[in-house]
Write a structure and sequence with these properties.
The complex is a heterodimer of chains A (389) and B (362). Chain A has 389 residues and is of the alpha+beta class. Chain A has eleven helices and 16 strands. The chains are: A alpha+beta (389), B alpha/beta (362). At the A-B interface, α9 of A face α3 and β15 of B.
Chain lengths: 389, 362
């Protein structure tokens, strides 16, 4: 399938300020995308609030707007530049959120701007927990068991169906209080009761805890002809419960048999198809129970992610660059592999080395942070990347 | 560290490492496999008879050895060369470490080898006859042994791996399939059984009449080791089956079909051994990531295009990966749709075989 001829001008949203969990990886991916699309003869309009990026260098785009990344600013730019398409999947979560709001407020429809890469429905399906759960059940994939409860009776019956340990999350709380992990029945009683009280609508989510399970990620790419390839598998040395950003991670996966890995690969392919990410990269996370091998889906990022940058460095497969080319209509077999030069991009990199990412904790910069890992938030912003053979 | 071990190639090139698993000395052709996982399936794939396998991925044995992930009754590799053998297994299914498994099954392993250098050497010079030894370290003597070893060309290795008697793999099923066992992987049999087939495995030496007397709905020509030109007696039998029954050929089975239909085969420089080969289905233009394991190939140009349609090609080197007969219910692929190890993208070919048998019934 050749390049799309119905679009000429593409708007790309950058990732904005460098903050913890969203750093220079997205400058890298956005820059790759700008270069790749310019190379194909498209006009590039760029929105990024951070001038200290490579992406905002004058030669990267035809028009660069250093403005706050908000739907209001986006609308003004669209009104002035009249782009044919918006590519929201290469600027991290900020770009994706802004694109979603622009779609929901009707800005994109008003100016007839197409979303390429992932459309509104696909992003919603991946990002909304409820939708995602339904989609996974539809294709027969396992998730951590969970249920909503509105009183203690329902909570106790949930306890019987889902075994301990359990995570309890109250809905609509002030300040996010009242949740926790229950290891025993006594703890469960206490936390559930407190949770129901602290929820404004007396609703708690009771979820099977997968803390301590083995954690994996797959980087997946799909093209418009529905070809899907897995670029890289990553295994976290630290189990579920430690944020991936704070974990030592290893590429490729180390402790899965081929049968387990292929099951995960099949699941990842089914997920990208069901969610409907048309082209480009997605990151899908899984957990595996080390006791019996049960595999559950954790989540999906329908965009280039922090792990895509690691996967690109680990394999030499330029995920962001190829994601941009796929978004404008090319298929994987039409793109040349950057490393071998004479074979197509429709392959799965075979590594003869292993790559280990080790986080560097800059506690000196955060004197108020405790030097223990709490799990939910990401602490580190830099890491060491080591290659072994 | 364990005791020394050496690898000598037929041209005198020497690689050094350390012994694990069994001690001893064996000859074979050195090939490299690029799969990241699946070492148990590779070790027990009968197609590796006559070959010493080196893994390009450096850490092998991380998930240990389990009783389920086997592809035949025993290991058939002549030797196994790796960078590092993991002493600790981390997987719920694991029952023993790789080293324990090698000792128990008398497989010679060498670790601590610069497998990247060895792989690059083979890529440049081509697959080579070799000897691995934990006993003889005299480089001249080793190189002479490698040179004198039989190699693969023209040799019948099938007779060393085929079953010696008929085996009823599954007794129930709508379609009766005879599998001509040239070194069949269990997952081909499992895939047929899962697709509602009654599976009868017959030795490679079975005569055409003895196959047809079973009244099969279809015949599957299995994978197997070595050179298709080394088994002319099987090719002769295949020729006589051509217009009698639907046929599906896999790997060596595909090559034997190629020969039976008048084509030629040739030896590839270093073969295809790995789980990431992109193959294009020329009728749908869709790409499958396939697992492959072959050193020989059917020459595209040698096929009579009036009778035979090329259905699949390898996107890396444009070699022939699949073909079908235009008039008869016959098709074959060079790669492994049964996977194990490797991706499941090409499993649709088993459905095709079922469809062919169904159509032939009606």
């Amino acid at each position: 399938m050749p390049k799309r001829t119905d679009i000429h001008k593409i708007l790309i949203i950058g990732s904005g300020p460098i903050v913890i969990s969203q750093a220079c990886e997205f400058d890298y991916s956005g820059t790759q995308a700008c270069k790749a699309l310019k190379e194909e003869g498209f006009q590039i309009v760029l929105l990024n609030s951070n001038p200290a990026t490579i992406m905002t260098d004058p030669e990267m785009a035809d028009a660069t707007y250093i403005e706050p990344i908000t739907p209001e600013v986006l609308e003004k730019i669209i009104e002035k530049e009249k782009p044919d398409a918006l590519l929201p999947t290469l600027g991290g979560q900020t770009g994706l959120n802004t694109a979603i709001r622009a779609a929901e407020t009707g800005i994109l429809d008003k100016y007839n701007v197409k979303m390429i890469g992932a459309n509104y429905d696909a992003i919603k399906k991946a990002e909304d927990r409820g939708y995602f759960k339904k989609s996974m059940e539809k294709i027969g994939l396992d998730l951590p068991k969970s249920t909503l409860a509105y009183n203690m009776e329902e909570s106790r019956s949930a306890l019987k169906r889902i075994s301990l340990p359990l995570i309890i999350r109250p809905s609509f709380t002030l300040g996010g209080t009242g949740g926790g992990i229950a290891e025993t029945e006594e703890e469960f009683e206490k936390i559930a009761e407190l949770g129901l009280k602290s929820s404004m609508i007396s609703e708690i989510l009771i979820e099977e805890s997968v803390v301590g399970w083995k954690e994996y990620e797959l980087e997946v790419m799909r093209d418009l002809k529905d070809n899907v390839v897995i670029i890289c598998s990553i295994e976290n040395f630290d189990p579920m419960g430690i944020h991936t950003g704070d974990s030592i991670t290893v590429a490729p996966a180390q402790t899965l048999t081929d049968k387990e890995y292929q099951k995960m690969r099949d699941a990842a392919i089914a997920i990208i198809r069901e969610v409907g990410v048309e082209t480009g990269g997605s990151n899908i996370q899984f957990a595996v129970n080390p006791k019996d091998g049960r595999m559950v889906v954790i989540e999906m990022n329908p965009r280039v992610s922090r792990s895509s940058a690691l996967a690109s460095k680990a394999t030499g497969f330029p995920i962001a660059k190829f994601a941009a080319k796929l978004a404008v209509g090319y298929t994987l077999d039409e793109i040349r592999n950057d490393i071998t030069k004479d074979t197509p991009a429709s392959f799965e990199p075979a590594m003869d080395y292993c790559v280990v990412k080790i986080p560097r904790f800059t506690f000196e910069k955060f004197p108020e942070a405790k030097d223990v890992l709490v799990g939910i938030f990401i602490i580190n912003i830099t890491y060491y990347l080591l290659t072994f053979n | 560290m364990n005791k020394k071990a050496k690898i000598a190639l037929e041209d005198g090139k020497i690689f050094a490492g350390f012994s694990f698993g069994a001690a001893g000395e064996k000859c074979g052709e050195v090939v490299f496999n690029t799969s990241l996982a699946g070492y148990q399936e590779i070790l027990t794939d009968p197609s590796y008879k006559g070959q010493i396998v080196t893994m390009t991925y450096p850490l092998i044995g991380n998930y240990g050895v389990n009783p389920e992930d086997i592809e035949s009754r025993q290991s058939f590799v002549e030797g196994f060369i790796i960078k590092e053998c993991s002493r600790i297994a981390s997987n719920w299914q694991s029952r023993q470490t790789l080293d324990e498994y090698f000792k128990e099954n008398n497989i010679i392993g060498i670790e601590g080898v610069d497998t990247r250098a060895l792989t690059r050497y083979i890529r440049l010079q081509g697959a080579m006859k070799a000897v691995i030894s934990t006993e003889d370290f005299n480089e001249e003597s080793l190189a002479a042994k490698a040179k004198a070893s039989p190699g693969l060309i023209g040799r019948d290795l099938v007779k060393e791996v085929t079953s010696d008697k008929p085996i009823e793999w599954s007794k129930k099923g709508k379609y009766k399939v005879v599998v001509l066992d040239c070194g069949v992987k269990y997952n081909i049999l499992r895939s047929l059984a899962d697709n509602n087939c009654k599976v009868l495995v017959l030795p490679s030496t079975t005569k055409t009449e003895d196959i047809l007397v079973e009244k099969p709905d279809g015949v599957l020509l299995s994978n197997g080791p070595g050179d298709p030109a080394g088994v002319p007696y099987v090719v002769e039998n295949v020729k006589r089956l051509l217009n009698k029954v639907p046929i599906f050929g896999i790997c060596l089975g595909h090559q034997m079909l190629g020969l039976a239909m008048g084509g030629r085969t040739y030896k590839l420089k270093f073969g295809h051994h790995g789980g990431n080969h992109p193959v294009k289905d020329l009728r749908t233009n869709k790409i499958s990531i396939t697992v492959q394991n072959h050193g020989f190939c059917v020459d595209r140009e040698s096929l009579n295009k009036e009778d035979i349609e090329i259905t699949h090609i390898n996107l890396n080197d444009q070699t022939l990966e699949g073909m079908r007969h235009r008039k008869l219910p016959i098709f074959s692929v060079q790669f492994h749709p049964e996977a194990s190890p490797g991706p499941h993208d090409a499993r649709y070919l088993f459905d095709k075989f079922i469809g062919m048998m169904e159509y032939n019934h009606a």
